[in-house]
Amino acid sequence: MGFSESLGGAAGLPCSAASARAPQARRAEAAEPSFDPRVVTTGRKKPSIPAFAGSTRDPETGEPVEVFSRPHGVEVLRHLEIVQPVREGVALVDAFAFSIVPPDEKSYDWVMREMSQFLEITDLQHRRGLFGFRFSARFGDGAGIVAWGGESQRGRVYFSLMGKGCSMVTRWADLALWLERHRATIKRADLAYDDFAGRLVSIAWAIEQYRVGGFNAGGRKPIHTCYGDWLEGESSTKGRTLGIGNRASGKYARIYEKGKQLGDASSPWTRMEVEWRAEDRFIPYDILTRPGHYLAGAYPCLSFLSEEQSVIRTVTNAAQIAFDAAVENAKQHCGKLVNLMMQVMQGDYAAVVDKLLRPGIPARIDPYSYHVKNDPAMLDWELRGGAA
Fold first, then answer.
1. What domain range is 303 assigned to?
2. What is the 3-state secondary structure (H, E, C) of 60-87?
3. What is the end-to-end Cα distance of the chain in Å, rounded?
4. Is there a domain that residue 175 lies in?
5. Could you tell me if 276 and 369 lie in one domain?
6. 244 and 146 share a domain?
């Protein structure tokens, strides 16, 4: 079915309260876009604005700022900073969203057709309005969403990809050029660094960096939040997350034990993520093509990152951990039943499997389903040197 046809009707680290969800920013008043890191104004009016007077940095996020007095209020210019990383390819794009006004009165179906040149878009499921838009739809079993409609939106379409969708994009440079050509506004970008062995990035490392000012970025020490199995410390099996900053400011960091989160209680895999939202800042197009530069420039403690990142390696590791955890869970819940069924059916494996088989993929493996469907052998125990 075509898009148009489918339209239809811490160890010693105190924890603060969780941050509130970031408010929706209005459209940035951008001039002609370019690939130079820059920002545009959004007219944010918050009690903290007067503290910016005479300052060159936002005291909350540490970002370089300019403040201007306008007839309609105060406008703030925020700049994203970049640093040359130790080596290229040290970050992955893990979430991404933009808004755009399609040409010639076209709508979301035009955006979807255009985006299909950069990733596979399937299973469009229409839902209620979202983010102030009248209509929305989910696609790719959680790969992303699109939203459109509503008088206040004046023809804009919102398009968002989460981790699953980002892992399907292979032509980031072409996508960045497309966004620039059509004057799209990037509304969100998340960059990630995976340390599978926990050698460079770990929760202990993050705690120490927070204490010595490694996350200050020129401003005051940011607030922090703790989630997960913190009372167990290094013995945690469920995983811990340390959040740095306030999501309402549009810049937020997460350091978490991803391997444990996925179900491997002994995994050292730690992920470092930084999320930017278009809160008084213009997120430049080349954040998609130079993610390592922007991640390294986000905080002083990140400039040393050196391990080259690979989408396939990240997806493969995550899918394998999730698969093994799902198999162990099935064993605990259904193992005895399978044993009994084998006796009842006199050792007929095929008959047992036929009785238990259900279509689909377990929810915990769904985020990696696109890659697993294309290469199910990535989960094979023998091929990865493990044991069933």
1. 92-309
2. CCCCEEEEEEECCEEEEEECCCCCCCCC
3. 40
4. yes
5. no
6. yes
* Structural domains of the chain, count: 2
Give me the amino acid identity at 128: R
For residue 385, tell me if it sits in a domain: no
Same domain, yes or no: 157 and 221: yes
Q: pLDDT tens per residue, the chain (388 residues)? A: 444 433 333 444 544 433 333 333 333 333 333 333 333 334 343 434 445 555 577 878 888 787 778 888 777 778 788 887 766 678 999 999 999 999 987 888 999 999 999 999 988 999 988 889 999 999 998 899 999 998 888 899 999 999 999 999 989 999 999 999 999 999 999 999 999 999 999 999 999 999 999 998 766 789 999 999 999 889 999 999 999 998 888 899 999 999 999 999 999 999 999 999 997 888 999 999 999 999 998 999 998 887 777 676 767 777 787 788 888 888 888 889 888 888 998 888 888 888 888 888 788 777 777 667 777 877 777 777 654 4
Look at residue 262 and tell me if it is in a domain. yes
219 within some domain: yes
